[in-house]
Input
Amino acid sequence: MKYITWLFRIVMLTILVVFATQNTANVPFSMPFLLESSLPLWVLLSIFFLLGLVFGVLLLLPKYVALRWNSRKMRKEIDSTKTASTNTINTTETSDAGAPQVM
Output
């Protein structure tokens, strides 16, 4: 499995290097009232890809935190149920210990 992972990484790196070398032409980029510049196309695409990645993670973060909170709450409930059932079993065994056994 490690070999497949490394092969995939090498192929992706090769594709990215070829992409960057083929898209070196400068492209004008301007934002109203903020910025005007000329950057290589691969730089602009990389910047906007990373911005999309960051915004996607930020949008999913509240749901992730809610699921973690719910999981922690359920884990505590399971632990308390295990503790209660263990205590019930232990009290039942100790109460039966003093009873005479019928043969």
